[in-house]
Amino acid sequence: MNAKKTVAVLCASSRMGQAETRELLAQGHAPRAISRSHDIFMRDEFRGTEVVGADFSDVDALQAAFTGVDAILSAIPSLAGEKSPEYAHNLVAAAKRAGVRRIIHNSMMWAPDEPCGQPYYDAVLALENIIAGSGLDVTIFRPVLFMDNLLTRFAKPNLVNHGLYRYCQRPGLLANWIAMDDVAKFMVAALTRDDLIGRRIAIGGKETLAVEEVVAILSDILQRPITYEYEDPYEWGARVHGEVGLGALMPQDVYAQAMGSFYMFNNESPHRPFEVDMKPVLEDIPVRTIPLREWAARQDWSPDAQEGNAVGSLSG
After folding, report:
1. Are 240 and 259 a contacting pair, CB within 8 Å?
2. Of 85, 188, 98, 183, which Cα lies nearest the Cα of 129?
3. pTM of the entire structure?
4. In Å, how far from its chain's centre is CA 58?
């Protein structure tokens, strides 16, 4: 067993943050969840987790939350928008003030090594550069596509109620889907791997699956025919804007245009952002990643599931 570390988890109440917190506990570490949602961490699965409230806009609060920890598992809130660079700078400033050198950062998606012209991906790269350029001991993971997305409000209701997977991935698109719980394994494994400092690592599951293969697996697990319906990326963005309640964040047409650009890039770019060769990654960082079929079989697909299960994985 590695020496016990006290580790701050940013965005801890998110599905990804919860997965990281659970993995830290499973590996014998002491997580400090940075969150204003204390109730989540009252569940038995989080027993032993310290919870500290802090806001990305408040460097002093972040510094206090980081004081005394050995490392930080970081992410920038996905809806931070134009505030994202400020939040990244505040993360770095607070870590330095608190005397914390080790940061394991989760970019929450693929990112290019150089600007690629797609605004979302270039923005992620810019955030990575802020953190990696801090002079601290930084490792960055770039998970390409989450299995857990299948359980969100834009996917699960249609799957379980209508036998329909409606999405904007072009037919035949290949992807290495990864469970958030497995992303957490990589993050925690890096805590004791000084040889990973300075690296940016794309990660996914071992399987490279076409979207049609994903639908076939879901059909088997849900024991009903599932139809895949390709939706124009712009139309998908316009629909999801309302379904997930983004009206207060940005106008529908702005979100639809952004999603249209983003998914047309994913569908057509030679960068192939949803694919990653995992063989060398797993040889270097030997964690077991769960196949999609096994992951799907563990989830609660009942249509009347409580919100916690309806929007997150069984363990997220």
Report:
1. yes
2. 85
3. 0.93
4. 23
CA neighbor of 275 nearest in space, from 120, 163, 110: 110
316 residues of the chain, pLDDT tens digit each:
468 999 999 999 999 999 999 999 999 999 999 998 888 999 999 999 999 999 999 999 999 999 999 999 999 987 778 899 999 999 999 999 999 999 999 999 999 999 999 999 999 999 999 999 999 999 999 999 999 999 988 899 999 999 999 999 999 999 999 999 999 999 999 999 999 999 999 999 999 999 999 999 999 999 999 999 999 999 999 988 887 777 777 899 999 999 999 999 999 999 999 999 999 999 999 999 999 999 999 999 988 655 444 433 443 3
Burial class (CB in 10 A: 0-12, 13-18, 19+), 225: exposed
The residues, ordered by sequence, that sit 6+ positions from 103 with a Cβ below 8 Å of its Cβ are 71, 72, 74, 91, 95, 131, 134, 136, 137, 138, 139
15 Cβ neighbours under 8 A, 6+ residues apart: 148, 180, 311, 312, 313, 316
Distance separating the N- and C-terminal Cα atoms of the chain:
25
Report DSSP state, residue 285: S
Pick the closest to residue 17 from 72, 73, 100 (CA basis): 73
**256 Cβ neighbours under 8 A, 6+ residues apart:** 234, 235, 237, 238, 241
At how many degrees (to 10) do helices 15-26 and 180-189 cross?
50
Number of residues that this document lists for the chain: 316
Give 106-143 as a DSSP string.
E-SS---SS--S-HHHHHHHHHHHHHHTTSSEEEEEEE
Cβ atoms of 65 and 34 within 8 Å: the answer is yes
